[in-house]
Amino acid sequence: GGGNFPAFTKPANEVTATTCGPATTCGSSTPTPYVDRSLTYDSASGRMTGTITTNQCPDSAVTMTPALKCITQTFPDSAFDATKTKPQGAPILGRVAMALKTGGEIYGPLDAGFTEGQLCTTGSCPGGSDLTSCESNLEFTCTDAVNTDMLTDACGGHASPYHYHKDLACHYDATDATKHSDPVGVALDGYVIYGMYEGAEGAKPVLDACNGHTGAVPANA
Is the pLDDT of residue 185 over 70? Predict the structure, then answer.
């Protein structure tokens, strides 16, 4: 054990936006997302620079009504700038990226947790659990119905403000394994996040410890 590990850091370049479209609340059955992208892609580095302004509302129907939060995020965020001399630790709780389609927040794998009674009478998930493990645990610990409204939906998101933890399956064709998946998000350091497929008969990429790799992408074709 031991060693010097990078400190977990929160975004430094988020500001409250002055306008996020006409909606004053996020819809539940009728989505009301707003996103304004002003991004430039650098094919040499694979990174984006610019801003995303969003109201954080999902673009699909949800069972609860998320809070509307009007913000502008600059990329790369200075706290995660990949040009720095040392790797920067991404937060394991909170935002690590934003969705290109909606501007919704993409969180790390861990969640703040659920107390007993929130999801079912007898089950709970401690803070710092990843949602996949949490959901599996509840299958065994809950003696009554699980309130699935608080867990991730088919699009990989949940909660209020609405945010993503899993594959953004509603933002690209997750059934098409014949080609490289489209970009779905941009990380706080500016690197583009793609869907799960690399192309070539359903191949999935071999990723490094930071869940990335170097290789051909459609924008560079």
Answer: yes
